[in-house]
Amino acid sequence: MHTSMSAPSGARINAIPLQLREQGEVESRPTSSFVDGQSIYSSGERAGQAYRVEFGAVRVYRVLANGRRQILAFHFGGSWFGLQNGDHHRSTAEAIGVTGVKCVSLRESPHVWNGLLPAVLENFSSAQEHQLVIGRQSAVERIAAFLLEMSAHAGHSRRFELFMPRVDVADYLGLTIETVSRSLTKLKNKDIIKLHGARGIEIVDYRALQNLCL
Amino acid sequence: MHTSMSAPSGARINAIPLQLREQGEVESRPTSSFVDGQSIYSSGERAGQAYRVEFGAVRVYRVLANGRRQILAFHFGGSWFGLQNGDHHRSTAEAIGVTGVKCVSLRESPHVWNGLLPAVLENFSSAQEHQLVIGRQSAVERIAAFLLEMSAHAGHSRRFELFMPRVDVADYLGLTIETVSRSLTKLKNKDIIKLHGARGIEIVDYRALQNLCL
DNA sequence: CGTGCCGTTGACAGGCGTCAAGTACAGTGG
DNA sequence: CCACTGTACTTGACGCCTGTCAACGGCACG
């Protein structure tokens, strides 16, 4: 199970951010392991911890009352998540594939907050970037931006595997799975990308993909 | 000029956040005044300052190469903005109506960063909230959410004035001005709101508006 | 080989963008 | 005082993009 996920996530372990190692507070904690789809925290639960992805991937999302879901962010190795100001989580975080996560209690060690400012700013920046994508870009443009984002997380590789199913891509980009599929097909037919199986992506024309995101 | 703006923004001066007064660093700075549409900082400029709205309002936006604009956030009295991790601004901030802004240099006083974590978390939270709106809601639902947001900034008043023109609302919600106008008309025809002139909003059925944002 | 999940493709309808015309209003100048 | 002008907003007609519904194909697993 999850063979198609564990291979790329294994490669990603080496990408764990060294600049955050300085925080001995974090390194002293054990890594918790989660299986695919397992909840790391849920909306409504009491907050008070900071989380960092060690390996694998995490989706953070919120669900509207009518069932519509919006994935706010994907997090990969080294990325912090779950940082917020309220007492209770307003979003849910789930593992994508087998995923390792380190937790720090902010109640026991409130001073850790000080070191997390760069991480919060990073999250904030990503959220703003994503606002542009879902606010002002067409379906194909969103897919292009998404593929470039995933490529960047894979070390700007031209060939990589998507960690998540289509429904996650759709809920991240504010689209439906059908539109995601159709947009990928369009990019394929324009010889901008090649598809290798359901999750494999090969970027043939990197520049064309970038031009779509203008 | 701007009479329709200065009245509500004047009321808002009292709403300046007291919990931030502790930072004498901020209070020691003079307030710079900006006229309607004046740039506070621009995309590409060197960053290194934190900004706080004293009175009036501010829009922060980015523009894609093809001219499409996305307003990332509106900021009102007491709100911090311009906080980011890079060396250079990736967005532009402009005054809406006559606006007062206090600046703090983060290069001269880097320790100020520590006190700004709550403000960054607040900005981050707002961005996430907005992701849901523009990612998963219809035009009418976005307008409903927007009106409730503006109402909240006016002390949850049922009657308030919009500070900004339709084009700002549209670029904030990822819509066109025509769709904004039509959606407002729909809400008006359903007797959920009343329109008083171009900018005046009266919420007749608060509950109905909330139900639209589910 | 059947079953179930995931992804793709097609037909169709509806929502929103685009283009265009019309209205309201403030400011200006005669 | 009133016509003129420019800006902001509204309304209408129309077309496209994307959502919806449905059928189909591929692959893993039992």
TrEMBL record, chains A, B:
GO biological process per UniProt: regulation of DNA-templated transcription
Chain ranges of the Cyclic nucleotide-binding domain: 34-82
Gene Ontology molecular functions: DNA binding
SMART domains cross-referenced by the UniProt entry: HTH_CRP
Keyword terms: DNA-binding, Transcription, Transcription regulation
A Pfam entry, by short name: HTH_Crp_2
Domain of life of the source: Bacteria
Domain HTH crp-type: 137-207
Stored InterPro entries: cNMP-bd_dom, cNMP-bd_dom_sf, HTH_CRP, RmlC-like_jellyroll, WH-like_DNA-bd_sf, WH_DNA-bd_sf
Protein name (record): Transcriptional regulator
Naturally occurring in which organism (per UniProt): Sinorhizobium glycinis
